[in-house]
Amino acid sequence: xxxxxxxxxxxxxxxxxxxxxxxxxxxxxxxxxxxxxxxxxxxxxxxxxxxxxxxxxxxxxxxxxxxxxxxxxxxxxxxxxxxxxxxxxxxxxxxxxxxxxxxxxxxxxxxxxxxxxxxxxxxxxxxxxxxxxxxxxxxxxxxxxxxxxxxxxxxxxxxxxxxxxxxxxxxxxxxxxxxxxxxxxxxxxxxxxxxxxxxxxxxxxxxxxxxxxxxxxxxxxxxxxxxxxxxxxxxxxxxxxxxxxxxxxxxxxxxxxxxxxxxxxxxxxxxxxxxxxxxxxxxxxxxxxxxxxxxxxxxxxxxxxxxxxxxxxxxxxxxxxxxxxxxxxxxxxxxxxxxxxxxxxxxxxxxxxxxxxxxxxxxxxxxxxxxxxxxxxxxxxxxxxxxxxxxxxxxxxxxxxxxxxxxxxxxxxxxxxxxxxxxxxxxxxxxxxxxxxxxxxxxxxxxxxxxxxxxxxxxxxxxxxxxxxxxxxxxxxxxxxxxxxxxxxxxxxxxxxxxxxxxxxxxxxxxxxxxxxxxxxxxxxxxxxxxxxxxxxxxxxxxxxxx
Length: 547
Ligand code: N01
What we know:
By secondary structure, the protein is of the alpha/beta class. It has 17 helices and 23 strands. A five-stranded parallel β-sheet has the order 5-2-1-9-21, with helices on one face. Strand 1 (21-24), helix 2 and strand 2 form a beta-alpha-beta unit. The longest helix is centred in the last third of the chain and has 21 residues, at 450-470. Residues 1-11 have low confidence and may be disordered. Bound molecules: 3-acetylpyridine adenine dinucleotide. Residues 67-68, 155, 161, 176, 194-200, 202, 217, 219-220, 341, 362, 367, 390-393, 505, 510 line the site of 3-acetylpyridine adenine dinucleotide. The site of 3-acetylpyridine adenine dinucleotide (N01) has 25 residues, from strand 3 and helix 6.
C-alpha cells in the first residue's frame, strides 16, 4: 500500500512526508492523540501491534482483571456528551467493560480508519536535514513524517522470568499481560501462579475458585486493601456526572489527579492511638488507594508514620487468614506501604483459607527450575498442569526501547538511556527532535489517574504543534540543560519520599540488568501541570524551535 494514499492528502508541514504525525500505539493515549491531531487538520497515522484498539486493556484479560481507579474517574474527559452518556455498571470497571468503552470511543469518533493494526514498528530514524522520521514496520515498509509520538504505554512489555526448563513444560502457561482471547478453564487443574503484584492478587481468588489446587509462588508480600467493589449507586453516578466539569478541572489541583479527597492535615504521629486507629478503620471501610494513603499527611514521607499504617494492614491480614504461619508470610515487611502500587482486591487474603490453596514462599528458596510437569524450588517439587506468570512488565521504558529509535549519524535512545531514562517532563528526550513520549519516564503518569495524565500530555503536544505551525516552525527539541534539571528534580523529589525504599518496577528492579533509577515523577499532578503550563506561558522554555 502506498502510505501517501492513506493520508488522503499530502502533508502540509513537510512536503516529502507521507503524514504529518505518526503515532505508535492504539491504546487510550494513541486514540485521543489521533482525535486531537485530526481536529487540527493534520494528517495522522497510528500503528498498533495488536489486531484491535485498547492497548493494555486489550492484552490484560486475565480472570478478575479490573481497574483500581474508580470507573467514574477512569475515563476520557474531552467530550462532555461522551462522559454523560456512558454508564459504568460497577464502582471499578472490569477489563471487558473498559475495553467496550474504548471500542465505543473509537467508533463514535471514527478513529479506526487511521490506525494500521497488526503492525509493529521496529525502528524510527530521524533525518535532521529533511526533518523527517522514517518508521520501519515489521514487514519492512517505511513511512515518513516530521513528527513521531510514542503512545506505547507504560505497562505493555510483559516480563516472563527466564526459568530454566520452561521450554520443556508440558502443560499450558500464560502471562497475565498476554492473556489468550479464548476462555481459559482451570477446572480440575493444578495451577501455579507466580507473582503477587496487582495482576496476581486480582487473578488468584478467581483461579482458586476453579482450580483443583492452586499454588501461589510469592517472592514479596504486598499490601492490598479491599476494593469494596459493587454496583454503581445511580445516585452517586448522577451526582458525579452533574459535577463532571468541576471535578475534572479540580483533579489537576491534586497530587494523584483525582478530586474529592481533601488533603489530610495531620501527621500519623500527631494523633492519639485511638484516633489513628479510627481513621484507618474508616478508610479501610471506604476502599480505595487514595482514601487510605490520605489518612495522614506524611505516610509517604515519614517511615515512622508509614509503619503505623503498614502495621494496621498487617493486623487485618492476620485476622483474615486462619493459619498464622500463612498470615505471617502474607504480611508485608519488606517495604513501606504505598511505595509499591497499593493493590485493591476482592477476597484475596480470604482465599488462603481455602483447602485447595497453598502459599509457597519463594523469597529465600527461589524457583530453580520448571520441569515438564512441575515447578521446583530447592528440594520441593510442585506438580502443576498450568502456570500463570503474573510477573509484571518491563515498565515505562520497555516498549520505547523495544524500538530502535535514533537520529541519523547520531545516538540511539538505547544508547542515551543505557544508565536510565532521561527526559524533559517525560514528554521529550534531548537530542531527539520532533519525538514525543506520552506519560514517559519523568512524568507523573503511572502515579496518577492515567487517563487524565494522558489527556494532559496529548493536549500539550497538540497545542505545541499548533503553536509551531502558526509560526512556520517545524523542528522542536528539548535542550540538554532543561532535561538535566528536570531529571535532577525528578530524583530529588523521589529521594525526599519513601518510594526508593521499595524494590519496585518504578525503580526498574524487576527486570534483570535494568538500571536502578526511580522513573515516575512523584511531585504530584498539580505541581507537574503547573510546570507544564509555565513552560508554555514562557514560550516553550526548555525547548528550541526552528523553521
Ligand atoms: O506486576 P508487578 P503486575 N520469581 O511487577 C513477582 C498495574 N496493574 O502485573 O515483588 C518469583 O507488580 C514479583 O515479585 P517481587 C499496576 O500499576 C494495575 O502485578 O519482584 N516471583 C511480583 O510479586 C501494577 O503495579 C491493575 O519480589 C517473581 C510479581 O511477580 C502494574 O500493573 C491490575 C519473579 C510482579 O508484580 C504491574 O502489576 C494489574 C520471579 N523470578 C496491573 N519475577 C489494576 O488496575 C517477578 N516476580 C488493578
